[in-house]
Write a structure and sequence with these properties.
heterodimer; A: alpha+beta; 6 helices; 5 strands; about 50% helix; B: alpha+beta; 2 domains; 7-stranded antiparallel β-sheet; 7 strands; extended
């Protein structure tokens, strides 16, 4: 294994490519995500997406935010060679909804909002509330880990360059 | 940031190594030994340590109070005294005026001024209470995994150093490279180590 601080900076691009692929799959083939996580879960893009174009000497950052924001500007940025660095996602399973921001460089989950859970009324309720929250946190992390693991396997295979990249390119240009 | 907040941010770690048996005794002892030390009445400007999840201002790890289900849950508390620079400057100048008057001198040396400034900061530190910040820690010991409930870089770095100092265990932060390594075969690891960015739109 590489030195951790070296690896963090060197492999940020894997996180950015992951989020770009994730957006593509959500738009292009959402059923694939259910096959990956073996559950009937719906992923949608939330109200914020951040992209970065580092193909040229200067780094350009593009942020699209707002509940009704169109993502055409994001597609335009992808056309110019940008990758997604941060994405806000909504994940629903039946009546439950999770919302959070996923960062490409760290895979950190920020501003995670969970589905409604029980209220704490007495001190005795705390342990139950923690365990319920933990169950809900764990669900989303297990799903995200499965999706990331699937991505990494594809990214390291010949399928990435032969099949996936041409599909992403076609999606961006359509 | 609390596990029970309506919105949380999480940094995830893998823990390398294990604590000595008996586990619960070891953990109780290490948490207690490294519990937060109050600095309100001390001339110290910051303090960091472990505290109880349910009552972060009264650390108590007796009776396995940090065990919930199969998880260990406690908090990392960082206290810091923030003395406004204008307050320091005001008190510093007052002291200089007073000393010049008392000694009959026309000016003070650089060393004397430095000493006065240190005394002023020490004096103010005793009078200003520390501001506490509490961040929850969820440790799944069986899975060697930790969730730290913040994504603030400086806090995460302080947590990593303090965790290793307290438990003599190293933490590996989860990010694209380390997360990928969790599920790869040896040949895939070699491929990852040689991987370069793809140009999706050339």
């Amino acid at each position: 294994m590489l030195d951790i601080s070296v690896a963090y900076n060197r492999y940020k691009f894997v996180g950015y490519e992951f989020l770009t692929w994730f957006w593509f799959v959500i738009e292009h083939d959402p059923a694939q995500l259910n096959q990956i996580i073996h559950e009937n879960v719906n992923f949608t893009i939330g109200n914020r997406i951040m992209l970065q174009n580092a193909l040229h000497d200067a780094v350009e950052t593009i942020t699209i935010k707002g509940d009704d924001a169109g993502l055409e500007e994001g597609i335009l940025a992808l056309k110019k060679g940008a990758l997604v660095t941060e994405i806000h996602l909504r994940v629903t399973e039946e009546e439950n909804e999770w919302q959070f921001t996923l960062k490409g460089e760290s895979l950190n989950i920020s501003n995670l909002k969970l589905p409604e859970s029980g209220q704490i009324e007495t001190r005795d309720d705390v342990e139950g509330a923690v365990l319920e929250k933990f169950f809900l946190y764990e669900k989303i992390t297990v799903w995200l880990d499965a999706v990331y693991c699937f991505f990494v396997k594809i990214r390291l295979s010949s399928e990435w360059n032969d099949v996936v990249v041409p599909q992403i390119k076609k999606w961006i240009l359509q | 940031m609390s596990i029970l907040s309506s919105s949380v941010s999480i940094t995830r770690y893998q823990v390398l190594g294990q604590l000595a048996d008996p586990l619960m005794d070891t953990l109780t002892r290490l948490l207690t030994q490294n519990a937060i030390v109050e600095i309100d009445d001390e001339d110290v400007d910051q303090s960091a340590g472990w505290t109880s999840f349910e009552d972060p201002f009264t650390p108590d790890f007796t009776g396995s109070a940090f065990v919930m289900g199969s998880q260990f849950i406690f908090s990392f508390r960082m206290d810091k005294k923030a003395i406004p620079s204008k307050v320091i400057n005001k008190r510093f100048r007052q002291q200089i005026t007073k000393l010049l008057k008392e000694s009959g001198k026309e000016f003070l040396s650089r060393n004397e001024k430095k000493q006065i400034k240190e005394d002023v900061i020490r004096e103010l530190s005793l009078r200003i209470p520390a501001t506490p910040n509490v961040y929850d820690v969820l440790w799944n010991y069986e899975k060697s995994s930790i969730w730290f409930f913040t994504t603030q870089k400086s806090v995460s770095e302080a947590f990593e150093v303090f965790f290793t100092k307290s438990f003599k265990l190293n933490l590996v932060r989860r990010f694209p490279y380390t997360a990928a390594m969790e599920s790869l075969t040896n040949s895939e690891e070699d491929m990852l180590n040689k991987l370069t960015p793809s140009q999706i739109m050339e």
